[in-house]
Amino acid sequence: MSIKIIHTSDWHIGRAFSSTFEDQDTRSHLKVARFEVIAEIVKIANAENADVILVASDIFENQGVSEQEIRKVLANLQDCDGRVVFIPGNHDPLIGQFNSPWKKMVAIKKSENILVAREPKPIGLLKAQLFVLPSPLLTSLN
Question: Torsion angle of alpha carbons 139, 5, 105, 42, nearest 10°?
Answer without folding.
Answer: 140
